[in-house]
Amino acid sequence: MHQDLPPPPIIELIKVSKFYPPDVEALSDISFTVAKGEMLYLTGISGAGKTTLIQLISRMEKESKGVLDVAGFDLGKLNHRSIHLLRRKIGVAYQDFKLLPNRNVADNIAISMEVVHQKKSNIAERVRTLLEQLNLSKKYATLAGELSRGEQQRVAIARAVAHHPEILLADEPTGNLDAENTARVMSLFYQLNRQGCTLLIATHDKSLYRVGNRRIMELRGGRLLSAGPPLTTSNTAAPVVETLT
Question: Quick check: is 167 in a domain?
Fold first, then answer.
């Protein structure tokens, strides 16, 4: 009998830990696999290690020990001259936004496309489409530093997805948003996932993952408490949450 197999992994961690001096263990022996094209949620209270994990996967930080493979790159062996090749495949929506305050909204979003040398006409069209999707069309020429926090968050999300990344890492992407704009962001995320993007969404907002068929992983005190296997086409009917023993 034919049995559906999971897609190949695009993110794989094997016993990954992260230490900060003098003796802070931010993450301890984290192991999990994310299938290509999967969309899953990373949960846990503030300080659980969600942001640190996203920083490791995006190579903003380097693991202290363990094996971390992302989009075909062994991050433990990735030198500084090659990091840009990894970043072309990843979009990151940072919790602290990291926008350029003295550049306007359109310029901030365009940056991620300019660095991969997309055509100006394609950049302009993509920027306008994303601004419309995220209810920001009227902010096109507004300086990022003059936006509200909710507006800045949506601009940061638009910048992260503008270059059509293979992987999107979103750190508390709806933390400053009302219900209407949260729905807009999640609609964009589901659209990206249908187009083949792999999404890892770090959040403590249970309303984002309470319904649906997405896998959920929980961090607590730097340790992975729960996870499920990567989803296949045969087990997408309900949320997958499996407690590890």
Answer: no
